[in-house]
């Protein structure tokens, strides 16, 4: 018998079954990502603070306590409310922005025309856009060909970080050119990218653990990286999250909270989380920040359709349209009643238990849900009219939002920013040219 050692076969290889030759195992591919549906177009309604133009209603409208109609000549299929700006996606795959442009979050030059940041303007991009996202001072656009362009800046506890080590980017910048991206998600100051191979890349501020690839000691821009590594570049250039290779994990969905990230494993309910957890908003025991991906047993109990996370609370809907809340109770943001306690585990919102919820969003300390019937519910802080109830009172349970502009319209998308809220609604009067500025009153 020969004692010659046989060559070990590479773990990623198999034989073709005919010639016996080694064939590399096909790499995992995501064919369809869970992007927001762009099949339905509607009109935009806005409420809340408009002091820097984030309502898009012009420089004279600084606040609204009820939803007002925004007059546009475009059919809009998606909206994102950033910290102090708003991003819209048109049916043709174009991006419109309005609001604060101090850090370049609008992706267009506004200094050449007075008050141009107060009204919607188009961002020049080299292709059709499939998805948009927005943070406190940045905006991102995923093109249909898998490229991602971003503009604006990230911030940390020391102030402006820049979008790249060179500083802010006032115009669209391709941020991750070596990968095909199928979904993006924005936190306040970080961006999450899901590649076609089920890998997750992150960049931005890491101070609360939201990048999932630094130690707590190495999370700041002034940390010592060693070996001559540029620490700021380490944070700002997209890089893969830290996972044990032995886990062999692939992901099929991502969500970003203000200071957190959620990632769903392919073919399973397993959800890995990282970031701020001081009110258990990640579904982890204890309240320490999580700097590397960790399986959340609580979030892994359900099959989620959408997870939205703000600074100190998280709202989620499962595939049955049931709505859950976890985190801090103040101002009523959980929707669990005025006398509730902080929710340390995911708790179903009983006021919505008979509703089939299709869309949700979180503002800083507010929450929203859209039902299958097109109803809009809001709860939490209402200080500057961001709930759209016509009052500035907080609501401790989901409250049906009624107004003249919502009459005979069915809401299907909601997004809440720092102190303003934007919805998309459909009606029989959504055709271009039928809207006029008088309806914004």
Automatic annotation (TrEMBL):
One of its GO terms (cellular component) is cytoplasm. Pfam families: WD40_RLD. RCC repeats lie at residues 42-92, 93-145, 146-197, 198-267, 269-320, 321-373, 374-427. It comes from the Eukaryota. Residues 44-423 form the RCC1-like domain. One of its GO terms (molecular function) is guanyl-nucleotide exchange factor activity. Transmembrane segments: none annotated. Keywords: Guanine-nucleotide releasing factor, Repeat. This is RCC1-like domain-containing protein. It comes from Ignelater luminosus.
